[in-house]
Input
Amino acid sequence: MDSFASRRNGLVENLRQAGFLKKKEVIAALLKVPREEFIPIGLKDSAYADSPLPSFDGQTISAPHMVAIMCELLDLKPGQIVLEVGAGTGYHAAVCAEIVAPSNLPEPLWGHVFAIERISSLVEFASHNLQECGYDNRVSIFKGDGTMGLKERSPFDRILVTAAAPRIPPPLMMQLKDGGKMVIPVGEVFSVQNLILLVRNSEEFKETAYGGCVFVPLYGKYGWD
Ligand code: SAH
Output
């Protein structure tokens, strides 16, 4: 069996050929972050299959092509402040951190990723994984209802929501910077969902739909009950 590193290279090459990966920063980040370190023991062998995998409490870690699509749409740049709702295993937050705070950039130029998770066991799992992989200086994990955003750290250049919402939570819209972008799946529970890119222009919000997807439900005040 190939090493994790060579399987990671193979997956990234496949995602490039399939057209999911274009930006060099996103490609570099996916080549750098060890997905196997964010996968529960017993499933690590599947770390480089392009499929979602179970994490804990019925939750999942998104398929690599979905991580790629969302990072490409977000148009992440070094120095940006990012909010992720649905930290899960911490993998997607680490990929974002590799783009907004790359290791080869001096620390004063780094951005930061704030990630919220509602399930305690995943808050612990994500925090542990990020620390083990050396991302705890660029990603901060919070426990709570991410549909409320994270007012004390707002406004954000970018917001990504990795669970499907019935509608775009208003607090997240309000915590987006002018010119900021949000990517969020909106739709029914485990059924028809659409990946939406929202761009803020002062008090106007422009929505573009990027097609079907399936995410676990976003629960909370502005999510599902
Ligand atoms: N991005 C994650 C995968 C996310 S799966 C990764 O890279 O591993 C979606 C996550 O959203 C689940 O862990 C779920 O518990 C969480 N979630 C659902 N509703 C939430 C809410 N209101 N606030 C914070 N997290 C929530």
Q: What stands out?
A: Residues 59-62, 85-86, 88-89, 91-92, 116-119, 122, 145-147, 162-163, 216, 218-220, 223 surround S-adenosyl-L-homocysteine (CB under 6 Å).
